[in-house]
Amino acid sequence: MSVVDIHCPDLMFPDVADKVRSHPMSGQSKASSKTGDDKRSIVQRVLPHLGDAHSLARWITGDRNAAEEVVQEASSRAFRAIRTAADASPRAWLLTIVRDCAYTWLQKNQENPFTRVDLHAVEDKQPGRASACNSSDATIIARTEAKHLEAAIFALPAPFRETLVLRDMLGLSYCEIAEITGGSVGIVMSRLADARDRVIRTIGRKLS
C-alpha cells in the first residue's frame, strides 16, 4: 500500500540539529575498556537518530525543555541497555525508549497527560478505515500551512498523534510503529487513518 508521507520541515523543529551536535554523546572519545566499547556502540546506534528522538519527544510532551529532558533520560537508559539491543533496529529501539520516557514524564508532570479515548470502540466502528490509509489524506495534510497543521496534530489524542508523527513525519514502517507502540500493524493502520481524518476535519474547521 502506497502512502505519501508528510515531511514538513517547519514541523520537524529546526533547532534539533543543534541539540544533536551539542549532545554529550556526540563528543565521546574512544576507550580500550568494556565501558569504552559500550560508549562507542551507543554513539554508533543512537547518535544518528537523536534528531528523530527529539522530534518524537517534543510531539508527545508538547514542550521543548521537556523533550530535552526526555531524550537525556532515554540516552541514559539506552546506554544501560546497549548490550541487550544487539539484534534490534537501532532507530526503532531508541524511539521505543524515548516514547516510554516521554509518557513517564507526562505522568509525573501533568495532572491529565492523556486525552481519554476508547480506541477499541473507534477501531471497531470503522472496520474499513485501515484501507482508507491512502495518499489522498496525506497529500491534503502536506499542503496545509505549518501553523494550522501543528495545531491540528497537537489536538489529537496521544495514541493517534504518535502514530501520525512516527509514520508521516519520521517515515517509519507500519511494522516499526507496531514494535514501538506495542500494538498490531492493523491497529497502527487504523489509528493512522483516523488521525489523518481528524487532522483534515480540524484544519477544515479552522480554515472555514
Question: What would you say about this model in short?
Answer:
The chain has 208 residues and is mostly helical.
Report on this model:
The chain is an all-alpha fold. The protein folds into 2 domains: 12-109, Rna Polymerase Sigma Factor, Chain: A (Orthogonal Bundle), CATH 1.10.1740; 119-207, Orthogonal Bundle (Arc Repressor Mutant, subunit A), CATH 1.10.10.10. The chain contains 11 helices and no strands. The chain has helices at residues 16-22, 34-46, 50-61, 64-81, 90-109, 119-125, 135-142, 146-154, 158-169, 174-181, 185-207. The chain is globular. The two termini are 32 Å apart. Residues 1-10, 26-33 and 113-132 have low confidence and may be disordered.
Name the average pLDDT: 75
How many domains, as an integer? Answer: 2
- In CATH, the topology of the largest domain is named Rna Polymerase Sigma Factor, Chain: A
Count of separate DSSP helical elements? 11
Query: How far is the N terminus from the C terminus?
Result: 32 Å
Instruction: Give the beta-strand count.
Output: 0
Which ranges are low-confidence, i.e. pLDDT below 50, for 5 or more consecutive residues? 1-10, 26-33, 113-132
